[in-house]
Amino acid sequence: MRTVAQMLRAKPNQDIYTIAPTATVLEALQLMAEKNIGALIVTEGDQVVGLVSERDYARKMVLRGRSSVGTPVSLIMASPVISVNSTQNTRDCLRLMGRGHLRHLPVIDDGKLVGMLSVGNLVKEVLAEQDEMIQQLEQYIRG
To answer: Which residues form the domain of 97?
Structure first.
């Protein structure tokens, strides 16, 4: 089972996208669309204060008839943020995501934001681990 650090190193795009809590929801949506991502980490200085996703927008803006133009991200972001650190493993991440119905996990080491994992990243990791296990078992059976 790989660690979060190993998963982050294997990601093709290791960029971390953040936004201020005072930015508008429209600005957050534009950044997510531009970067083709589903969530942004909300930061004040070096501190992670929230996470905002397309799902937050749909549930807290669209369904309530609010305008994204003047609404600050702080009104719809998830906070406090559930996160992991680089030493945790795939199973830890999946457990947290399952319990909290989460799709994104910021990675924070010693108070510093170092990455972000999505449910898609974890599914790919689990499938790769299963493929590796199957290959090992096939080799064992063949002798």
So the answer is: 4-142
| Three-state DSSP class for residue 121 | helix
Beta strands in 3-140 (DSSP E): 18-19, 39-44, 47-53, 104-109, 112-118
pTM, to two decimals: 0.86
Amino acid identity for residue 56 in this structure = D
- Look at the block and give the residue holding tokens 């590796």: 132
| Cα-based angle 39, 58, 78 (whole degrees, multiple of 5) | 50
User: Could you give the number of structural domains in the chain?
Assistant: 1
Report cis status (omega within 30 of 0) of the bond before 106: no
**Cβ–Cβ < 8 Å for 143, 119:** no
pLDDT digits (tens, 9 = 90+) for 7-57: 999 888 889 999 999 999 999 999 999 999 999 999 999 999 999 999 999
Tokens found for residue 80: 């406090």
